[in-house]
Amino acid sequence: MAHFLQHRHDRRKGTHKGLYRSIARTLKFFQTFALVEVGHCAIGIIRTSVIVTGVQVCSRIFMVWFITNSIRQIQSEESVILFLVAWTLTEITRYSYYTFSLLHHLPYFIKWARYNLFIVLYPLGVIGELMTIYAALPFVRRSGMYSMRLPNVYNVSFDYYYCLIIIMLSYIPLFPQLFFHMLRQRRRVLHGEVIVEKDD
């Protein structure tokens, strides 16, 4: 993330091309390493939903490895910049919140940012992700990447193009659930409301 914030745009051309390539290694490492956080949720080190954290982490890993990293033609899309900015600002506020909480000295503005900025950043990140997947569809269809055609040894057919369409459609039921989960957490933390959630 630091690489992203320190990247210098080519001001003469006014372009962001090359940004992704300059931060790709760091981005892939930290987003993949975030799987550890799912484990932390599972054993109770972090008191948050394993399912919510797992979905968020896996969706980011998918975007990094199987979309942006795999299809170089889309790496300079504005939508990539959009979700990278949203992810970066979200993680800055989230880990600042965790750090100050562990130090038992949590400034109110950090807590406020943690439970308010997501209202804007979360939808922006989702829009960026969806636009990036959409931009990838023509390249996936032409190349047949990650697809398996019959006949083959395994007698299995898989079309990555249609898989991506299904993934895009899955945002319709998943995004509201995750977003409203965060809104409930916001009410609990900032306003002291007691939220009783149903067991899945």
Folded structure, characterized:
This protein has 200 residues and is mainly α. Helices cover 69% and strands 0% of the residues. Helix 5 crosses helix 6, helix 5 packs across helix 7 (118-143) and helix 7 runs antiparallel to helix 8. The two termini are 34 Å apart. It contains eight helices and no strands. The radius of gyration is 19 Å and the shape is globular.
Average pLDDT over all residues: 88
Structural class: mainly alpha
Q: DSSP helix count?
A: 8
Poorly predicted regions are 8-12, 196-200
Q: Report the strand count.
A: 0
Give Rg in angstroms: 19 Å
- Please summarize the sheet with the most strands: none
Order of helices and strands: HHHHHHHH
- N→C terminal distance: 34 Å
List the helices and strands and how they pair.
Elements lengths: L1 H5 L12 H15 L1 H9 L6 H19 L9 H25 L5 H7 L3 H26 L16 H32 L9
Helix pairs in contact: 2-4, 3-4, 5-6, 5-7, 7-8
Question: What's this, in brief?
Answer:
This protein is mainly alpha-helical and 200 residues long.
